[in-house]
Amino acid sequence: MIFVEARSETHWYHEWVAVFVALSLTVVTASILLAVMGLEPVSSLQRIFIRPLNSVYGVSELVAKATPLITIGVALALGFRAGVWNIGAEGQLVMGGLCGGAVALGFWGIDGFWVMPLVLLGGSLGGLLWGAIPAFLKVRFNANEILVSLMLTYVAILLLSVMVHGPLRDPDGFNFPESRLLHEAATLPKLFPAGRGHFGFIFAIFFALLGTWIVKRWHLGFEMRVTGLSLNAARFAGYSRDRTIWTALLIGGAVSGFAGVVEVTGNIGQLVPNISPSYGFTAIIVAFLARLHPMAVIPAGLLVALSYLAGEAAQLSLGIPAASTQVFQGLLLFFLLGTSLLVNYRVRFGRAT
Amino acid sequence: MRGLTKYFGDFAANRGVDLSVDQGEIHALLGENGAGKSTLVKMVYGVLRPDSGDMELHSEPHSPDDPSHAKRAGVGMVFQHFAVFDALTVLENIALGLEGRYPGAELAADILELCERYGLHVELSRRVHDLGAGERQRVEIIRALMQDPRLLILDEPTSVLTPQETEQLFATLGRLSDEGRSIIYISHKLEEVRVLCDRATLMRAGKIIDVVDPRQESTRSLGEKMIGERLKDTKRSKVKKSSDSKPRLTVRVGDVYPDSIRSVALSDLYLSVAPGSILGISGVAGNGQDTLFDVLSGEVTLPNPDSIMLDDTPIGRMGVEQRRILGLLGAPENRLGHAAVPDLTLWENIILTARHTRGILKNKHLISGPAAKGFADEVIQTFDVRTSSVNAKASSLSGGNLQKFLIGRELLGNPKVFIVSNPTWGVDAKAQLFIHEMLIKMADAGASIVMISQDIDELLSVSDRICAICHGRLSRTYPTEETTPDYLGALMLGQEVES
Amino acid sequence: MDYGLLSSILHAVLVASTPLVFAGLGALIQERAGVLNLGIEGLMIVGALAGFATALSGFPILISIIAAALAGALLASIFALLVLRLYANPVATGLALTLFGLGLSALAGAQYVGQAAPQVDAWNIPILSHLPIAGHALFSHDPLVYLSISLAVLMWWFITKSRAGLILRAVGENHSAAHALGFSVTRIRFLAIITGGALAGIGGSYLTLVQTPLFVEGMTAGRGWIALALVVFASWRPLRVIVGAYLFGSVSIIQLHGQALGVSVASQWLSMLPYLVTIGALVIIAGRGNFSHKAPGSLGVTFRESK
């Protein structure tokens, strides 16, 4: 008889084992899928996962894609620990890109070291505002933050579209729905000679470190965690559920907004209707892959970014659509969720006492 | 029932219980909390299976695997905690408890007919959310009666009822017994049992003490049977306190209405505790103890700051943290999920309540892991907590050890006032003794302690003064050594005691 | 006013709304049981592909629709396993389901790019379909439109007027009490999830068997999320899902034909309306104490069987 028994102490290596098992299962399943499609698994996997990293361009692209994933992933990890489900990070990213981009365009042509910080601040505030709405509605009306933040995502994307088609459109741009190219003072420097890897990655690492520190040392991080685990105990400890909700969503919003403006100023260089291939949603997977540990978000983000590259490589060299990368991401998340039971419980054989 | 025995781990909830109920008889099961009454009837209803012994219902062997078997055999039960659905109507709620019935006109007619027969009254189209406790119970009773039970079990039915509702209930039960149905009536309350029941079985610590005719007994006689020798055993060595020593904690507030509809409101709340004194508050669960604890600890704040005075400071409006800083600490009844977070380690749980001491929280915002771990270690050493390390999860500790840890967490903070609820519930004898000694030591060192408990033994051995809480009101307080079997019997049997 | 255009537009509204009705009902039945399934989008697109591939292979349309339902149910069972048995986080699992469904359908659907599947023929209801305007708009549709309405009515009847529906509601309201009364919460939720998955799958197949004869990756374009919003908008009642779906459907059509209808506002503002209205609904519904409009009490709460 197989049964599960709760562990008395969980060490970090239990988490790593779970992740390793999940990764292995994913690779195995992906191999099977490839084989079923008539492709040789090992060489195919090598072609789509290893090859893209063999050039500076490849690494640069990896870094570029990982930047928003890590940035938002950290903020979401903090929020999820608190039991606040910010599914609308994508919308906050878009708002951040929109607001920051608008600030950049407002200062178009004006140079000065102070332009960039203002632009970044503008983006963060835009995202913050977008996160404040579900926070307010949850605290005041007990409205479900999953659905509110999700609905706002669509609103944000539509707002961006309106702006880019109208007020923010490049006057010299042949009526294309895109803004002017941002001037240099409002652009983040690139990190590599090739590819789009940019300075935003440094910010991402910084956020991961900050997030780790918050979780381990800052009392606010602890407070959020307790609230996510047990509302009654949190109340007994003197913690406020409302404060936790606000904190989680404001951080989530501001950081996602930051990621958005970084995308616009570092990666894309202008405002266009589509500034994100669902980074805000994919960051959710990154957060879970990292098992909600901010430091682990870095490798998790890089791995998921790699899966984006793998998707593109798969399209080029294997002839399968890029969207197939979502199969990998979905599978990985499935297995992760399935193995998460292993972290808190030990599998035993025999009779239950 | 013959020789029914049930163990939970090492703990014997029932030991060799023999009991018989005649047809048409209303039979009471009397005893204090933890005597084993609920466990016994759960075996009759199929919720639990006995480890040994057997049962017969109408001369047929009775050993249900689960409640639906028991129901089919003709046993009905009304639990203390109602399994009702707030968002659904009364009719729907009743239908759910019956097999294969649909909440339509036909069922409604059948229910109304039953209500007529037994003098019950309920509105079928109302949502249960809008109903009070008495009406909810009526829904449960109707549900049970609709199954035409030959034996009906009621577990502490009147703990949430008003006197009028109680009268109605008794009238219904009378009619049932006239029809030849048998009733097992679990209760603490002697006056009720005297009015209603034909026979009463007294239980204590899992065993039957006696079977009596309640009408022939008095509070005193029953109290003596149940207390036995215990009254002579009050162990508290009293450090002589000057009787005019100024109270440290005074609570004076009119009515307290808690947020949740399930919590009991308090009325005319007054209590005071002197330094070095232990006040014991006894009472049957569900009479306002939780609300009282929350009011004292600060989870519920009062509009008037003067309603609670700690020495000379008005703390009525202060929250939990502020009261802690002033030296008022507490240990609630629920360990996992209130006093501690099950999945956090012991040292992390320290942070919850002790963060303002011993440098655990630096600069108001930074957590010092070493300081927290150091304190956790101190608690473990001082209170002899059996655990692997400070990194063990709270959920991995046994009940007794966790309780030692949690109480130690507070006591090592040198509280001026310590509020504790059911400190040794579910704790093994050795740990219980230890905790009691620690409490007494604290008091001797000058702390004021308020101990809410359902364990009469504990109250007798630890407190200086004793009172009772019933329906949200506190009774008159007596010094422990002056308590009489009458008074204690009343306390144990949950009688309304004058304020 | 061009009545021919009006009639066409109304017809188009029904076509646009029907997948939402199916998906909305699919989400609704799960939520009434207390399960929040964010994977509706993935279920829909898998159904779209399954229906498409089956029709393309020459099977009758009915078989194709059944295939779509089966595909949705099968994928939903993975969700059920993770959430009900392994106690996985429902939010994350739902998202994984969406991702996986989108990716799998893209992968498996690549071979069908550019191919056209046979479409469902319209059933012109005798007599009624000859009415002016309404005849074309309402009574000359494919059978799935009528099926969607019938299913909504059937679900309404099931939930409010049957004992099984009552038990479903009980599980969704208070799974602890339901368990205490002897109902198998896990089994009932499993059935709800499978059924919901099947309905979402059928909704997806409508896209490839009626709306467009092609399969394109990601063609559900967020309809699954709208279906979730729909359920809230409809206060968890099946008949209102029809109303909500048609509202959302109208907006998308008006957005397309905006200029022809003389609407001068930029289409994006119009498109925002359904989402904003849903947020408004969420606020009003959550705040009100009236139980008939509230979310099921155990929605999204993991049930752990304890003896």
Describe this structure as you would to a colleague.
The complex is a heterotrimer of chains A (353), B (499) and C (307). Chain A is mainly α and 353 residues long. Chain A has two domains: 1-37 and 321-353, no CATH class; 57-319, ABC transporter involved in vitamin B12 uptake, BtuC (Orthogonal Bundle), CATH 1.10.3470. Chain A has helices spanning 12-36, 41-50, 56-81, 89-106, 115-141, 145-165, 200-216, 219-229, 231-236, 241-268, 279-289, 297-318, 325-344; strands spanning 2-6, 345-349. In chain A, strands 1-2 form a two-stranded antiparallel sheet. Chain B has helices at 37-45, 67-73, 90-97, 105-118, 133-145, 163-178, 190-196, 219-227, 289-297, 320-325, 346-354, 369-382, 399-411, 429-444, 456-462, 485-492, and strands at residues 2-8, 11-17, 26-30, 52-54, 56-57, 60-61, 75-78, 151-155, 182-187, 199-204, 207-212, 249-256, 266-273, 278-282, 308-310, 313-314, 328-331, 361-362, 366-367, 417-421, 448-453, 465-470, 473-474, 478-479. Chain B is built from 16 helices and 24 strands. Chain B is an alpha/beta fold and 499 residues long. Chain B is 33% helix and 22% strand. Chain C is mainly alpha-helical. The mean pLDDT of chain C is 86. The chains are: A mainly alpha (353), B alpha/beta (499), C mainly alpha (307). Chains A and C meet through helix 6, helix 11 and helix 13 of A and helix 4, helix 10 and helix 12 of C.
Q: Cα distance, first to last residue of chain B?
A: 41 Å
Q: What is the strand arrangement across the widest sheet of chain A?
A: 1-2
Q: Stretches of chain A where pLDDT falls below 50 for ≥5 residues?
A: none
CATH architecture group name of the largest domain in chain A: Orthogonal Bundle
Give the count of helical stretches of chain A. Answer: 13
Distance N to C terminus of chain A: 12 Å
Number of domains of chain B: 2
Mean pLDDT of chain A: 87
SS-derived structural category of chain B: alpha/beta
Query: How many runs of DSSP E, i.e. beta strands of chain B?
Result: 24
* Major sheet size, sense and barrel closure of chain A: 2 strands, antiparallel
Indicate the multimeric state.
heterotrimer
Tally of alpha and pi helices of chain B: 16
Averaged pLDDT of chain B? 83
Most residues in contact, chain pair and counts: A-C, 45 and 47 residues
**Strand segment tally of chain A:** 2
CATH-defined superfamily of the largest domain in chain B: P-loop containing nucleotide triphosphate hydrolases
